[in-house]
Design a protein that fits this description.
With about 325 residues, the protein is of the alpha+beta class. It has 11 helices and 10 strands.
Amino acid sequence: MDVLSQADIDKLMRDLATGEAQKNEDEQKSTVKNYDFKMAKRFTKEQIRAINAVFKNFGHLLSNYLMGTLRASCESEVLSIEEISFNEFNNSVPSPVIIAIINTSPFTGSLIMEMTKEISFSIISRVLGGTKEIAAEGRSFTDIELAIMERVLWQSLKNFDEAWVKIMDVSSTLEKVETSMQFAQIVDINEPVLMVTLNITIGTESGLIGFCLPHQALEPFTKSLNTKHMYAGNGSKKIDSDPSKIINTIKHTDILISAVFNSTEATVRDITSLDVGDVIQLAHKVDEPLIVKYQQIPKYHASMGKYRNNLALKILDEIRGDEDNE
């Protein structure tokens, strides 16, 4: 408990006498803001933490995909996750921009993924063999560039689905690609949405990727948006550890077996001049054994013959040297 000094008591008495205390109280009351029930927060902190974990995973998967496709270093970072109205999201999207309308099952309704022109033109340039960003000022996307981005978006959706796997199984399809929010209104303008923003860096260039997740699309599954589900695992799945069943499964597994002759060399002229009835002389002696391969791995030497009027192979010996090398 704080103890007032004599100076504090004297100041308080002076404020009461002059009315200054009432003025300070009125100033404190004026800081109270009216609560807008139309814009009530629909997402809890726990749900936002789960969404953050999902998109961190998505960013990692997308970076790996872009790194392999574009042959350039790529990094991603979740910049922010905030709950806003769809109208605010709509007004924040620049033009032109790559806008993907996504249908994700089992979510009810569509989602939006947007790529700014900086990151989009950087991807297009590298897909076409360039190393620098295409000049984006004062130009829109061509049909060829949109086709390239559509292909990239399809692959990105595979990464998006994989990022959700620890919470639930989802399956996404690309409904359409637009370059303006004028044709991308998926919910009412006052509908609350979760805006997820990622920063993607490709080489020395960077740009933003944004996701618009409407509350009405995620509402039936909000109970699943919990970080506990991500780390608890799925206890309903039982692992079958019966050795006899495992051995039986292995025994019935299909394996490709092939018997091959020694390779024979031929010129292109010889091959193009072949006709029906021609004979090719193999570089394989009549009494020389064939090599039997399991899944392209040499395992046995065998001789070829007939058994009940069918071509057959007789195993002669095992190729142990090649097996040891494996």
